[in-house]
Design brief:
heterotrimer; A alpha/beta; B alpha+beta; C alpha/beta; A: Ubiquitin-like (UB roll); 5 domains; five-stranded mixed beta sheet; 24 helices; C: alpha/beta; Ubiquitin-like (UB roll); Alpha-Beta Plaits
């Protein structure tokens, strides 16, 4: 095969695919064909680049040019200008929001500058549907080294020494987990990959499976070798069709190449992987619930102990790790535990992938070293708060986490610091909130999610969270009392204390952390019946400022309930008893005459 | 595809396929490898820049030299086509004019491998391409 | 065995490895309250979802409270069961349950027998601090069981019975979060499901979410209708349990008081299902001997083993799950239905009452009997052989309605001719009893010799699956016994696979047989109660003068006067049935 002189990488992550990146790819191919360049220039659909805010991404190498927000129509121009004439298409380059200068390379962009990509090392770089590209990146080398040069104990020691902790949220030391499962005696053991990512807005695991499925497969095989399992299962939610497709292709290719199956690399190690589909229940991310779901039972957790390491899938010792945890393993083996342990903080090593979302300029997927501060993430990588507004809080850990305020902006992020601050690492959701967010409503939002996703097995989670939610509803409806605030805290503590699994034990965290950090906001709701952020509809009043109102009748004409009255060219008036607080008048008014209070 | 039967097989395949990825890896960090930009405007192509580019890619690859060969637009030295701009890591770029295959071979053998400047360097009268 | 040292409420205790905190505590007199937890000792039935969280205790060093019912002790563990934190959590949990409960205790069928009510009382809950939406579900009425799942507290006991014990798999938790509830798949009605109406869900439900269909009102109306002659039959297991409803010790036999009470309630004739049990032995025993003789003679077409057919839940179970085996069970109707059939023909003729004016009520330890009596093949021109099948619990309610001081009643005897029975019939009430009764008769008919002994200890007991070989004078007869449909399933799968070694198998749906039936007084998870009832049944057998069915003089007379011979054409018409493929 002729060597290509140029590679065009088109992002094929779910987000960019939704913006027609497949069409972009095929347009490239067609046009290159027309120019007779198909043999010289390769077009590759890769996994996620992470910079989803600016997708679809097209990267051209070796020129190292990073095009953003490319449309299928832009392809001709890129080919004519860049490929043929060697001139970068200026308008598709990233523009630094502060300096307004265009940046042509990823390395030059603030979004990427502070990232260290270990788990995401191949995402946006290789074609995930071609095993040879993975092999070209040292792929399966770690498995080879383990099988031929190292004993399972050696490998477990390396993983332990690396300090890798579970990336699914719990932060349990991975090497220790492997060791426990290895010590369980059984005729059959299992390696399970937890790909039931369920935090709202989180897509770390999906992106890894879409962009680099082989890294997970290789790691599962290494884990199988360590614990003495010849069977691997990937539990993945059925809502991830692209990840499933890529994973299937990867498993098939690995089997064809003899990297899965019997007698891998000429050793007597056998390992095969099957896919199990989840129906998208958040609670199935909890390992015992996940195992029950795989067994065909209702996806609900059971009391631990026994831990899966002793009694897991089909009653056999089972090691469950999350996708991102696995993705770190081959690199740790290849580069050594000391290298991995050199990144991060004392007790949290390596990097963490976060899904950055909310009121922030650069929404996307980032991988940062442990110990980075929130400020660096939000302002350097994330490009600051949208529309120049004020930072209010950042929510980490998804529905199980909590809200962190300004005072934590310079806290180094790691497992323990986040817990100490009343939140948690979680699987990596990070939602940034600006000053227009009502913290009571935020707590309610997360609780609503937990309420829907609770399995309903234990009383505190099933009924307690419902009552908690109802109290919050009462508060945002302006019917709350001060007693409700103490009741909230009391009930939250009982739910934490008595729930069966991690979901219930952490579900009140958003409530407790907002109570801790934004008590005044709660107090305003219950004492003065006001919502400082102006978000709680029931507490908000729309009025018309007679001085600014020109009597244009726009509000009058748009009010859906006829609550606005007034003569042409004279100030209008809102009848509060009729107003449904839809906000249309506020949006329509061109003279800023509608006030929210 | 034949099955990979042992670690040696895997290593062999890895070295075979690595070169395909290499271009991307080097392209991601061009400052760490030899960079060659071939002027490929109409005049360049007319005077054989394309062949020079292919030759350099093949030869550098053949010799196992980590490098990035890219095309660029007109450098303004139409009288001296084909022209290439060579950047050795940590050094200022230089531009060679009238590059033939023999010259290209010489550039690789002398300048790139031994860091000896050759004749035919065009004095830079412009700012670097990137600026 | 490894022993573990720990302290509970500062008291040291040493227990074997694997013991739960709950069990360790109860051993030293610390009674940690539980709600969802249930264990029937020695019967391999345990419901331990750890879901209600009422039994939470404080374990030193653990971040959260631990459920005592499913937390195993560890060396050096320090447990405190009544710290303010634990008590507050426990009460909050119960308040939360009550906040999503109809709380219609005054008129609830389970009032006074409700574990939730007891728990609220036990914990001194006087105010529910939480209010909000309550779960609302439609009521599901089937021929036997009513589901009012507004009252479901997700204890999952019914699910354990339906899935793990009975392997019927109708009930399981559905929906998520606040809307999670135990229901059949797609929340279909029970009568559309494969429910066998065994009633084990009802037997274990801690609240009023699952109860039997109450037919006491209809029976009272029939009793007060002057145009009707109302007769009653009582199943063997009822007399060993009814006393419990009136505060008597479990295992107290109340046969005579029960008869007296029924008579005072106004039944015109008080008969005994035991009579029909003897009749069943004649029919089923004859069928067994016919098949057995043919088999021994080398007839390859003959189907063995023969399976008993007294239990209606079991019949419905194999009709749903093993329809290809429907030729194997005995075609003999259950004693309840044999009684109804004979009552509305032979007896109706005798007392010259028209079928339509004769009302047959049966008192059963069972809720599936309600369903059985409603099966269309058991009625003639729309008039059922058995009009109403009441449970033991419903009879107790009737007696209370009748202002009868049960404990003070004298012992009275059944009426004749359908009230006479043998010891063989009495033991129908416990697992192993039907097959023992059948052996007593079959042996004598097969060998032509009198039995050397009457008590077949090898057929008795509480193990879920039992087998024994009885020597029929040189011919070894292999007998299998299963109670609990999960155990039955194992035997049926052996038959399906052609691996069954048995000639005859007795199957009862309920653990313990009819003494543990779904219509019996609630055992609240105490397996000892079932064992006491079983002992009572065997003692009644021992005290009977006649202990073999074929020696019941009224049975002999019935054949002479009416049926001819066992398995005669008339018998087939009146006393046998056929089975349907319901898969």
């Amino acid at each position: 095969m002729a060597e290509y002189t140029m590679h065009i990488l088109v992002c094929g992550g779910t987000g960019c695919k939704a913006s027609q990146s497949e069409l972009i790819k095929s347009n490239f191919k067609t046009r290159l064909n027309e120019y007779g360049l198909s043999d010289e220039i390769q077009v590759i659909l890769t996994g996620c680049f992470g910079f989803c805010e600016k997708g679809p991404i097209v990267k051209i190498l070796p020129d190292n040019t990073f095009y953003t927000q490319v449309t299928p129509e832009d392809v001709s121009e890129i080919i004519d200008e860049h490929i043929i004439k060697g001139r970068q298409v200026e308008r598709l380059l990233y523009k630094d929001p502060e300096t307004q200068k265009t940046v042509s390379t990823a390395n030059g962009m603030d979004f990427y500058k502070k990232q260290i990509r270990i788990a995401l090392r191949n995402c946006g770089f290789i074609n995930p549907e071609n095993i040879e590209e993975y092999i070209g990146r040292d792929g399966y080398g770690a498995l080879g080294t383990c099988l031929t040069e190292k004993s399972p104990e050696d490998v477990i020691r390396i993983v332990k020494e690396s300090g890798l902790r579970g990336r699914g949220g719990g932060g349990f030391p991975t090497g220790l987990k492997w060791e426990l499962t290895r010590k369980s005696v059984s005729d059959q053991k299992y390696v399970v990959c937890n790909a039931d990512e369920g935090d709202p807005g989180a897509f770390m695991d999906r992106s890894i499976l879409e962009g680099d499925p082989h890294s997970v497969i290789e790691a599962m095989a290494i884990c199988g070798y360590c614990i003495g399992a010849d069977k691997g299962l990937v539990y993945i939610r059925a809502e991830y069709p692209l990840a499933i497709e890529r994973l299937k292709i990867a498993i098939r290719q690995a089997s064809e190449y003899g990297l899965l199956g019997d007698g891998i690399l000429g050793t007597d190690f056998n390992f095969s992987i099957e896919i199990r589909y989840g129906a998208g229940a958040f609670v199935c991310g909890e390992e015992t619930a996940l195992i029950h779901s795989m067994e065909g039972h209702r996806g609900e957790p059971s009391v631990k102990p026994p831990f899966p390491a002793e009694k897991g899938y089909n009653g056999k010792p089972t090691n469950v790790n999350n996708v991102e945890t696995f993705a770190n393993i081959p690199v740790i083996i290849n580069k050594g535990s000391a290298w991995f342990a050199s990144i991060g903080t004392e007790k949290s090593k390596g990097t963490k992938v976060f899904a950055l979302a909310g009121n922030i300029n650069n929404v996307g997927l980032i991988e940062v070293p442990m110990g980075i501060t929130l400020r660096e993430i939000i302002y350097d990588i994330g490009g600051g708060i949208k529309d120049g507004r004020e930072f209010k809080a950042v929510q980490t850990g998804g529905p199980s986490g909590g809200c962190l305020t300004k005072s934590f902006l310079d806290t180094p992020i790691d497992y323990d610091n986040l817990v100490a601050a009343g939140s948690m690492m979680g699987s990596g959701g990070m939602i940034v909130l600006d000053d227009t967010s009502c913290m009571v409503a935020i707590a309610k939002f997360y609780l609503e999610f937990t309420l829907d996703e609770s399995c309903g097995k234990c009383t505190p989670c099933r009924i307690g969270n419902k009552r908690l939610y109802e109290i919050l509803e009462k508060i945002t409806d302006g019917k709350g009392t001060k007693e409700d605030l103490s009741r909230l805290r009391m009930l939250s503590n009982v739910i934490k204390d008595t729930s069966l699994c991690g979901l219930g034990q952490t579900s009140p965290n958003p409530v407790l952390s907002t109570l801790d950090h934004f008590y005044d906001e709660y107090l305003a709701h219950v004492t003065t019946s006001s919502c400082p952020a102006g978000q709680c509809k029931a507490l908000v009043h729309y009025t018309i400022d007679a001085e600014h109102c020109t009597g244009c009748t726009l509000c009058f004409r748009n009010c859906p309930v006829g609550a606005i009255s007034g003569e042409k060219r004279s100030p209008h008036y809102i009848d509060q008893s009729l107003c449904i607080k839809c906000g249309v008048c506020f949006e329509k008014c061109k003279f800023d005459a509608v006030l929210i209070a | 595809m034949n099955k990979i039967k042992n670690l040696a097989d895997l290593k062999k395949l890895q070295s075979e396929v690595q070169s395909k990825i290499k271009l991307r890896e080097n392209g991601d960090h061009p400052e760490s490898v030899v960079q060659i930009k071939v002027s490929m405007a109409t005049c360049g192509i007319a005077s054989g820049a394309k062949e020079i580019m292919t030759y350099m890619i093949d030869e550098l690859d053949h010799q196992g030299i980590d490098s990035v060969v890219t095309q660029t637009g007109c450098m303004g030295y139409c009288y001296a086509e084909p022209t290439i701009e060579l950047t050795i890591p940590g050094q200022q770029p230089v531009v060679y004019g009238f590059v033939t295959k023999t010259k290209a071979h010489e550039i690789i053998e002398k300048h790139i491998k031994l860091n000896e400047m050759l004749d035919g360097i065009i004095p830079v009268t412009y700012l670097l391409i990137d600026n | 065995m490894e022993m573990i040292n720990l302290t509970i409420d500062n008291k040291p205790v040493v227990v074997p490895y694997g013991t739960t905190i709950l069990k360790a505590a109860s051993g030293i007199g610390i009674d940690i309250p539980t709600l969802c937890y249930m264990k029937l000792d020695d019967m391999n039935i345990e419901n331990k979802p750890g879901g209600c969280r009422v039994c939470v205790v404080e374990v030193k060093g653990r971040r959260n409270l631990s459920p005592a019912c499913c937390t195993e002790v560890t060396e050096g563990m320090e447990v405190e069961t009544h710290t303010i934190r634990a008590v507050n959590a426990r009460r909050t949990v119960v308040e939360l349950i009550l906040s999503d409960h109809p709380a219609d205790c005054l008129i609830c069928a389970k009032s006074g027998n409700c574990d939730l009510q007891d728990m609220a009382h036990h914990l001194g809950v006087r105010k529910i601090h939480y209010e909000g939406e309550k779960s609302m579900y439609r009521e599901d009425t089937s021929p036997a069981i009513i589901r009012e799942i507004d009252k479901c507290i997700m204890c999952r006991r019914c699910e354990t019975m339906c899935n793990d014990v009975q392997t019927v798999g109708v009930l399981s938790a559905v929906n998520r979060g606040f809307h999670a509830v135990v229901a059949p798949a797609f929340e279909m009605n029970l009568d559309h499901s494969v429910c066998t109406y065994c009633g084990q869900c009802v037997a274990v439900c801690p609240t009023g979410a699952l109860t039997e269909v109450d037919e006491t009102g209809a029976v009272i109306r029939a009793l007060s209708d002057p145009t009707k002659t109302v007769i009653v039959q009582t199943a063997p297991a009822v007399r060993a349990a009814l006393g419990e409803e009136f505060g008597m010790e479990a295992g107290t036999l109340v046969t005579g008081k029960m008869v007296a009470a029924l008579r005072r309630l106004g039944f015109n004739y008080v008969f005994d299902t035991d009579f029909a049990a003897d009749l069943t032995i004649m029919e089923e025993g004859t069928e067994l001997l016919t098949r057995l003789s043919a088999f021994i003679a080398g007839d390859k077409k003959v189907k063995l083993p023969i399976l008993t057919s007294c239990c209606p839940a079991w019949v419905k179970f194999f009709e749903h799950s093993f329809p290809e085996l429907k030729d194997i069970p005995s075609t003999a109707r259950s004693p309840q239905q044999m009684f109804g059939s004979i009552a509305k023909t032979y007896f109706a003729d005798k007392i010259e009452v028209k079928r339509e004016n004769l009302v047959v009520v049966s008192i059963m330890p069972c809720v599936a009997k309600k369903y059985e009596s409603s099966r269309p093949e058991f009625s003639v021109n729309g008039n059922p052989d058995v009009d109403f099948a009441l449970t033991t619990r419903e009879l107790a309610r009737l007696i209370k309605l009748g202002n009868i001081d049960f404990k003070a009643l004298p012992n009275e005897d059944f009426d004749q001719p359908l009230g006479e029975s043998t010891g063989a019939a009495v033991i129908f009430g416990t697992t192993g009893g039907v097959i023992e009764a059948a052996v007593r008769t079959a042996y004598e008919i097969f060998t032509g010799k009198p039995l050397p002994r009457l008590d077949f200890e090898e057929l008795r007991g509480m193990d879920g699956l039992r087998k024994a070989t009885i020597d029929f004078n040189g011919t070894p007869i292999h007998i299998g016994i299963a109670h609990g449909l999960g155990n039955a399933r194992k035997l049926l799968e052996e038959i399906q696979a052609g691996k069954s070694e048995f000639h005859a198998i007795e199957i009862m749906s309920c653990p313990g047989g009819c003494i543990g039936g779904g219509g019996q007084p609630y055992h609240h998870g105490d397996a000892e109660i079932l064992k006491k009832r079983q002992r009572a049944i065997y003692s009644e057998d021992t005290n009977k003068t006649i202990r073999k069915s074929h020696e019941n003089p009224y049975i002999t007379k019935l054949y002479e006067e009416f049926l001819g011979a066992p398995n005669s054409e008339k018998s087939h018409h009146l006393l046998h049935t056929k089975y349907f493929d319901r898969s």
